[in-house]
Automatic annotation (TrEMBL):
Protein name: Coproporphyrinogen III oxidase
Alphabetic keyword roster: Cytoplasm, FAD, Flavoprotein, Heme biosynthesis, Oxidoreductase
Domain of life of the native organism: Bacteria
Organism: Micromonospora endophytica
Enzymatic reactions: coproporphyrinogen III + 3 O2 = coproporphyrin III + 3 H2O2
Length: 472
């Protein structure tokens, strides 16, 4: 005789909410789904706020429109599922720049996360060394091989391409260094091509050809009203019980199910469920898994070694500033600035432009290994950002009428080579020992809203399969 399924989703970020929604869509109608979020807010790094009377993103600002195969991304599919497709907005200004040698230079086209597919196009910002990219008689990478992005690109195109193009592009996404980050995780299409192509130029072109984009097709999208509308709609549509300020401190296997210990140590609550989706960062997940059994402890050690970078997002509301017609700019670490990227929000996103002339400019601060820079007070960070923006733009910016500093401690995973293999091994061990326990989120599958949505949905599908197979 079957009984009603009880599923716990630990983590109320977009991966956890996507898992809850997929459970609602695919599991039996009477399934009890509960989302446990340790903070008071859902959405993780999706957070829409208000500044100077207008909306602004204090976390992620957009999602990719397409998946690597060329179809709609998982984020776009989720937006449609929630009836929000009419709210999708695209950048009004798509051209970004690099701050190089004290000047803003347009980011050259034809690159793959900064790795050039046309060496002539990048000559305005970096001098490649094409003579090093020789055909050695075999593929650049062996089957399953993974290397640091920087090592491969430096060996083929030279230091300037890495330092002035690839490193700032990766730094804008991961706050990490090209010399440390895994090629297979951060550039999977290029890694696949490098296992068949004999030159890096050929690999970039092959990766680009595998996912062609029509001229003028938008790369990014966001939602009118902010990305928090996506969070709220997913939470509501999931029909899940949402528990905020509910930290899951322990996870214990009991029979064919699980016992969660929730809340403070002085007044714990014990909840029994049939299955669990762990949609939390790698280190909290590893702590919950460490005491289950020896096999799982080994898996926990694999995923718990993942390191994270911290960043701060400083947003300034500036009265009628003189800004270039750019979406923003990236800053190579070699420039010696605190800012690593900046977005001209009300220029990039036309639907956010204001009749009063106030412009919203956001800067990202913090690179991996430089966390000491983030120990400055908010006022110091804001003043430094204002000063550096003025210097990069070569014009004194007006004093801000409002500002906001959003700190994201330990927010961005740093995927070192072999990350995907370590995660696969950990998941295989978990599946063998505990098929009703699944991992989801950026710590395992990569950053970006589409990847996190897909990760949560996949975990939910695997939970459903496991519960069906158990006869529950």
């Amino acid at each position: 005789m079957t009984t009603r399924w009880r599923v716990a989703v630990v983590g109320g970020g977009i991966a956890g909410l996507a898992a809850a929604l997929r459970l609602r869509d695919r599991a039996p109608a009477d399934t009890e789904i509960t989302v446990y979020e340790q903070s008071g807010a859902l959405g993780g790094k999706l957070r829409t706020g208000e500044l100077a009377g207008g909306p602004v993103e204090f976390g992620a600002e957009s999602f990719l429109m397409r998946d690597p195969a060329g179809g709609p991304s998982a984020a776009v599919a989720l937006v449609h599922r929630l009836g929000l497709a009419g709210r999708i907005r695209h950048p009004s200004v798509g051209q970004a720049a690099l701050a190089v040698d004290g000047q803003l230079r347009p980011i050259p086209g034809g690159t793959l996360v900064g790795v050039p597919g046309d060496l002539e196009k990048v000559a305005t910002v970096a001098r490649p060394t094409p003579e090093a990219d020789r055909d050695g008689g075999g593929p650049l990478l062996g089957p399953g091989q993974d290397v640091p992005v920087g090592a491969l690109v430096r060996s083929r195109f030279g230091d300037e391409v890495v330092d002035r193009l690839v490193d700032p592009m990766l730094g804008g996404v991961y706050a990490g260094r090209a010399d440390d980050l895994s090629l297979a995780t951060t550039m999977p299409a290029l890694a696949r091509a490098a296992r068949t192509e004999h030159t890096l130029l050929g690999a970039v072109r092959a990766a680009q050809a595998a996912a062609p984009r029509a001229p003028g097709e938008p790369v990014f999208g966001t939602l009118d009203g902010g990305l928090s509308t996506l969070v709220e709609a997913a939470a509501t549509a999931s029909g899940a019980t949402i528990r905020r300020n509910a930290a899951v401190r322990e996870l214990t296997a009991i029979g064919t199910g699980w016992r969660l210990t929730v809340g403070p140590t002085r007044d714990p609550e014990h909840v029994d469920v049939d299955a669990v989706v762990l949609a939390v960062p790698a280190r909290p997940a590893a702590r919950l898994l460490a005491d289950l059994d020896d096999l799982v402890a080994e898996a926990a050690e694999r995923i718990g070694g993942l390191d994270y970078a911290s960043v701060a997002l400083v947003t300034l509301a500036l009265p009628e500033p003189t800004l270039p017609q750019l979406s923003g700019f990236l800053v190579p670490g070699t420039e010696g600035l605190l800012i690593k990227a900046s977005t001209f929000f009300t220029t990039k996103w036309g639907h956010l432009r204001r009749p009063d002339g106030v412009a919203l400019v956001r800067a990202s601060v913090g690179r991996y290994g430089e966390e000491s820079q983030l120990q400055r007070p908010d006022e110091d960070l804001a003043a430094t950002v204002h000063r550096e923006l003025s210097a990069v733009l070569d014009t004194p910016l007006p004093a801000p009428v409002d500002g906001h500093v959003q700190r994201w401690g330990g927010a961005l995973p740093q995927y070192t080579p072999g990350h995907l293999d370590r995660v696969a091994a950990a998941r295989a061990a978990l599946a063998a020992a505990h098929p009703t326990l699944r991992l989801a989120g950026a710590g395992y599958d990569g950053v970006g809203i589409p990847v996190c949505v897909r990760s949560g949905e996949t975990a939910a599908e695997e939970i459903i399969t496991a519960l069906e197979g158990s006869g529950r």
